[in-house]
Amino acid sequence: MTRTDTPPFAWDRVVSARGQRMNSSVIREMLKITQRPDVISFAGGLPAPELFPIEAVRQAASTVLDRYGPAALQYSTTEGHLPLREWLAARASITPQHVQIMTGSQQSLDLLGKMLINEGDVVLVEAPTYLGALQSFQPYGPQYVQVPTDDHGIDVDALETLLHTTRAKLLYAVPNFQNPTGRTLSLERRQQLVELTARHGIVLVEDDPYGALRFTGEALPSLYTLGLERAGHPDHNHVVYSSSFSKVLVPGLRDAWVQAARPLIHKLVQAKQGADLHTPTFNQMIVAELVEDVMPAQIERVRQAYGERAGQMVQSMQRHFPAGVQYTTPQGGMFLWVTLPEQIDTAPLLQQAVARGVAFVPGAPFFALGGGHNTMRLSYSSATPEQIERGIAALGETIRSALD
């Protein structure tokens, strides 16, 4: 029997200060209102489900069970499945001891925040930056400082000027096909950024979930690789590299990794032991079965599809967007960035767009310290060319209406 005269427990009084600093993902909450079947959604950064290698995953799961038996379903080491770590290490010219398997990149960011950020530490972030990183770091009480960006990524000259008056602990960057803008950090700026952060003793966290998904232009070395060349040894490298198999295989297995100096990997192992003991053994073994034979072909398949969809979206915007609207042209990844005339606020514009059957993500939440009210992020990865044409036409009508 339920009593109605008992007052509710005061959870807001007992939740920790760290818990109070947490906030919901604006995008995840937004997806709830954009999942109507009649709405074309450019909001969520979702890999295209029709491209998932379902048969290959099914075969890999069967092979893993045949080969490993009960061990595939048992608890395992926190560091991760050794064959998978060995494969990742060989690609980066490091040892498996410099690789930690994670349960998705979001866990990587959370545990890196836990290990690196003290209350009040200055954390440098791009303006705009990945919303999920802000959400992961926020509970640890950072003091954000925004770094200006342009079409070539982080403005390193502006960063150097900023560092004359700012003592920073960490810089978080997405150099390849950045979420949310789709921009790519140029080679010259990569070299300058690695050198500048090393000189100032700043940990450089490189988030690279999209790097393999380049569909135009030449591949560029990772910040981690440049840092390793500079340092000469993985344990002397100030760059921390985070990536994931979610965008190049399937997101549901939640396999990701961090490569870093061993002292930091050691602390990440301890943090992960307290978080979830280890990433699911079965999932890691499945990924290890796929990386050699299946993943290269899968990457090519995804690159081709996303390249076509990105091209379709840019062409559709050229046809349907009014004058004065600016947008990026990505060389890879899943996103592009739209900047509208200053008088438009994209937050209320979203409701008008949904009424016309199309959804996007307003840009303001991607700015750690405010701004971006007239911007939006569009994802082309999970929409068909026909949906892209119809959705961009509807979005163009919405923007024109707001300008009238």
TrEMBL record:
Recorded hits in Gene3D superfamilies, A to Z, give: Aspartate Aminotransferase, domain 1, Type I PLP-dependent aspartate aminotransferase-like (Major domain)
- Name its co-factor(s): pyridoxal 5'-phosphate
A molecular function GO annotation: pyridoxal phosphate binding
Q: Name one GO biological process term.
A: alpha-amino acid metabolic process
Query: Mind telling me what this protein is named?
Result: PLP-dependent aminotransferase family protein
Q: How does it assemble?
A: Homodimer.
Source organism superkingdom: Bacteria
Q: Which InterPro entries match?
A: Aminotransferase_I/II_large, Class-I_PLP-dep_aminotransf, PyrdxlP-dep_Trfase, PyrdxlP-dep_Trfase_major, PyrdxlP-dep_Trfase_small
**UniProt keyword terms in alphabetical order:** Aminotransferase, Pyridoxal phosphate, Transferase
Regarding protein family, the annotation reads:
Belongs to the class-I pyridoxal-phosphate-dependent aminotransferase family.
> Carries keyword Transferase?
yes
Q: Which Pfam families match?
A: Aminotran_1_2 (PF00155)
Locate the Aminotransferase class I/classII large domain: which residues? 51-395
